[in-house]
Structure prediction request, 274 residues.
Amino acid sequence: MNPNSIVADTEGEMVAWCTKPGHGTRLIPKNALKGVQYMRTPAYAQVVGFIDQTFIDLQTDDYGGEMDPHGADTRGNPLGGLVYSSAFGNGIEQVIEWNNFMGGNAFCIKVCDPANPNAANFCQHIYDRIGCAYNSPNNAQNGTFEACLGDNQDYPGIYTDASGAVQTYTQPPESLGPITTMPYQPKVPASSSCTTYTSSVLYSDLLSVTAPGDTTTSAPASTGTAKPSGSGSASGSKTGTAGGAQNTSNSAEMLVAGGMATAFGVIFSAMFFA
Prediction:
């Protein structure tokens, strides 16, 4: 992975970045993370946030794309990428369904409970052109670091139109050009029990990790929601609606990517492919 890379050109060879040392990965430089929200729901856990992506070797104006365990050739993007987690109360186990969107100086990664029969629906991988806003609807704020409990989202691509009919969105192929309009706006799931943290405390292991040319001493705060766009081609659809949600306790959890572990929970030690 070289500096100034583009996700669409390198998604098959992405590498892991962590906020904790000791896992054989690259460390995210200090001041890169601008805001992070961790959300634990009955069906999945997700991390959404804002980042200066030039600190992790991506072009500043790259609006990115999706990494997932499937890929066009079923070998995954990145090739052979594996995710393990202890988020679901069964110790460290492999998470079969997950996705990660990276680009537009924002990111989201969602891991779905392997025991949930709808894991593949919650962690869809066919909507790679419409980014975090539609695949992981959220209220993450730039400048805020928090952990919350949340309800399940609707399945990505499933929505109710103005007449009350449930519809399935079909993503157009990339050959038709940019997606400029959408027939619906995703519903952001309800959240509760949010706890706010100080980034310098969460990421104390990163204080000595600097990106080339970085002379700042702290990360600036601003506002907004994480809604990066994706790129690439995919098509297809799934049907169904998300079941009722109940809040689930949020304890320190673990995510392991490609055999390399990183804390994943209230300490926000998230794994990123970039």
Notes: Residues 7-273 form one domain. The chain is about 5% helix and 25% strand.
